[in-house]
Amino acid sequence: MTFPSIATAVVQWQASHGRNHLPWQQTRDPYRVWLSEIMLQQTQVSTVLGYYQRFLDAFPDVASLAAAPQDAVLALWSGLGYYSRARNLHKCAQAVMELWGGAFPSRAEDLETLPGIGRSTAGAIASFCFSERVPILDANVRRVLTRVLAFDADLAQSRNEKQLWEHALQLCPTQDLQQAMPRYTQGMMDLGASICTPRKPSCLVCPLHSECRAGRAGNPENYPVRTRKVKRTAQAWWLLIAMDGLGRVWLQKRPQAGIWAGLYSPPVLDSYEALQSLAQQRWPQSIAQPWRELPGFLHVLTHKDLHLHPVVVPVGNAQAAMVSEADESCWVDAAGWADLGLPAPIRKLLDTELS
Known about the structure:
single chain; three-stranded antiparallel beta sheet; elongated
């Protein structure tokens, strides 16, 4: 099978067997396609669907998103994870307004200059919305390509990744780009998501089965090859849940870098002793009140396990008047925290234990 025939097979398969019902597939509006592409990074389609519509209801266009406060964007993103995506989403919308007059650029190389848009996302937007002949190389497509080509070079090395990009470009359609490029790009994504899966791929129903080199060799699960692995780590976090007599919780904004960056959270300490010290320093009279240690629980991130230990510390109403502009802290009740950007485990903790 030649490169052009591979593209034809993918286009034809996508038309009859691929996903064609998703809301962002019914438009060539770059704002909507961009929003879906950012949300779909490392997140399943079933999870994204609800968030996607809520975002469009709140921010129907790039101008409304750019004008929104970051906290409003983070509040709507809460639960999707990878919050740097939300912060970059907001920055990107502002850049489109300031640098491009409110219209997304049509070329992938220009899209790639915007915050949060990498080469693959730029290629997807340019392909779907403007039919530009550019490749994508997300995890699903990388898996399909390395198997079809039996590309066994180590993708942990940049030169090999660059070579795979060159192969990906060669595979793109060369005719009828207006229709073929969006369908081909979607088809490659669909193959990786539904047929060419990481484990036990459904090779017999794959449109590229007859010419897939890894399939013929009987070892598709050996691809892609990447030797460098990120080691998982674990960390214990103690959460100081200061609560006043009105049922309000003291929250502070996290730093703009690191885990839960830019979100609101109870103070995070690395030990019970540190939590105790902070509580006594800020609210000396709280030591006379009974503290309540809630059951600890695990929150799993991509490369880290967080063991969270919440401790409820009662604070008198008179002491609760203290807030800090330095860390953007505030006392918030259940109605208030519903509108704040909170990490998903913190929102669940507050809603189930304290509301």
